[in-house]
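Thanks for the sequence, V.! I ran Tyrosine-specific transport protein 1 right away. Repeating your input here for the record:
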Amino acid sequence: MMNRQISFSRILSGTFLIAGTMVGAGMLGLPLVTGVSGFVPGIIITLIVWLFMYATGLLFLEVTLWMPDGSNVLSMSGRFFGKGGRLLSGGMFIFLYYCLMVAYFAAGAPLLADALRMIGLSFSGWEMFLIFGIVFGTIVAIGPKSIDRVNIIMSVAMVGSWLVLIGSGSSEVKIEQLSYVKWPAMMFAMPVLFSAFGFHNVIPSLCTYLKRDRRALRISIFWGSILPLCVYIVWQWLIIGAIPREVIAETLEAGTPVTAAFQSVTGEAYFVAVGRFFAFFAIVTSVLGVAFSMVDFLGDGFRVPHRKGWKRIGLTVLTFTPPFFLAALNPGIFSTALGVAGGFGEAFLNGLLPIGLMWSGKYVWKLKTDLKVLGNRYLLTLLGLYAFLVIAIEIAQLV
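Predicted structure:
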């Protein structure tokens, strides 16, 4: 009985950590980019990206389990691709997750400032970014158990506020808005969708936390990615069906999160307030997941085997300081940081890298794996071509 309870607890913790990592700032931009193409095309491209990210997540898990406990992207790339691969992967990891942290700071700090203002504390400018960094940096610095507990609380609060939003706004959904389609535009939603479905960064940390239990890890990855998929589908149904297309286009053009368009749904102040709380909880869960993996990544890079005490505090400061400065200097960087993170960082680290590592491990190093379908040469090639397509689309959008 005790073993079953422990196993269920591990699976639940892993599921919430993965789901919390995925449902974050990408949620605030997702219905804006899919709304341009319409509901049906948006859902189709959402399912395609989920399937791709789920597949590469399983590939990355398998590679992680080939490595010693505590290994991260640097160790994996160094083993299978040598020093050049280690440097490239390390640089892309830092680029991606600092971009995401910048986006989280830019969107989350103003929301925290609004919440603190309700209890009489007023912060603005660089101060609100500093407070945001101190509050959540402290949680990360304390350790994995602190992150896990806060993440579960925030995940439950996020789901609760999401349900309130759906219940309050569902009556505003209009069939004629859901029936609009613009098929070619759905391709340009893929970079942001890559950011929305990114969870691979927590897999090495999760392997350690779940004691390398392969079954628990795979179940956690499946349900941890399915939950956000369901949330995203219903979320797009609400936003695309309730907010006029011109408002969605204006919000996307302004580079602001979807919460800026909530006023046009019901006109009720409470709906806007709940929307802000939802956005805050979604961002916090992602901050905790990304920062959790960043601390382990930096510890791996600086060869810090025991990431506790002052050493963990130092790694946490390195994780939070650059995003603080970049967001404080450019508060409107949210959309840019999110798009670039998905189109380049996610496509490489969560797409091309797991594919390349699996190919090298299985076909060059001859390591054993039970992923017979996903490990097939032809399927790996197809997945790789898709990742290159997303990178090409992001380049086209920037140009």
